[in-house]
Amino acid sequence: MSLFDLFSGDRRTPDAAPARPLPADPVGERIPVIELVDVAKTYRMGTQEVHAVRNVSLRIDAGEFVAIIGPSGSGKSTLMNVIGCLDVLSSGEYRLAGEDVGVMDEVELAHVRNRRIGFVFQQFHLLPSLSAWRNVELPLVYAGVGREQRRRRAVEALTRVGLGDRIDHKPGELSGGQQQRVAVARALVGDPALLLADEPTGNLDSTATEDALLLFDELHRQGRTIVLITHETEVAERAQRVVRVRDGVVQPDERPVGAPV
């Protein structure tokens, strides 16, 4: 999937205000950011069916920091694609911040990806010819936000992740850890309901990994809802909850030692 496919939304609504607050249910409680009910995803390979995700039910509330961990082939990447609206369900229900994803068409899904979800990937997906702030503004460009507002919000996002003095640097002038911070700033610039990080430390050395995890810790303390996909136990243990996936099935939740309740 290209950056255009990921960030472009419905251009019939070009004003592109920040994502609206999460809705509340009739008794005033927060509706979960993520609610999966008996979700399954099946792929067909020739005459065979591959059940990548099997009857997964999962709830993640606003402000939670959840790690989804599993070995290669466990189904965690497919689950990430479903949560990120990058792939459609075979069966079950998925509500993102109270909205039924299963009934959305491609234009609506693109709109959700742009406005409701901030993506951070193992590969930084930064455009080498653009400065840090211009990389960060990309989701706002596709959403139709005006130039002055784009720059202001991009600089604010970079300052939030500690790169306020690097806004004009190109990716090749930044360390791996700094490039990942640019990617995080890009994910935050639209003020999404969900920050979805797929193996965000996979291309980083140990020092940059710790730096990135400290940033996620800080974003969690600020109240961000974070879902982090990883195969590394030490990375997963930084989360508030750990969800293990094996053979497409979600195992009972774990709470790392010392994690907040």
Automatic annotation (TrEMBL):
Query: Carries keyword ATP-binding?
Result: yes
Q: What are the TM regions of this chain, as residue ranges?
A: none
Pfam families found in the cross-reference section: ABC_tran
Q: Which UniProt keywords apply?
A: ATP-binding, Nucleotide-binding, Transport
Q: Which residues form the ABC transporter domain?
A: 34-261
SMART domains, from UniProt? Answer: AAA (SM00382)
A single GO molecular-function term is:
ATP binding
Question: Key word Transport present in the record?
Answer: yes
This protein's source sits in the domain of life called: Bacteria
Q: Where is this region: Disordered?
A: 1-24
Q: Which Gene3D superfamilies match?
A: P-loop containing nucleotide triphosphate hydrolases (3.40.50.300)
**May I have one GO cellular component term?**
membrane protein complex
- Output this protein's name: Macrolide ABC transporter ATP-binding protein
Source lineage: Bacteria, Bacillati, Actinomycetota, Actinomycetes, Nakamurellales
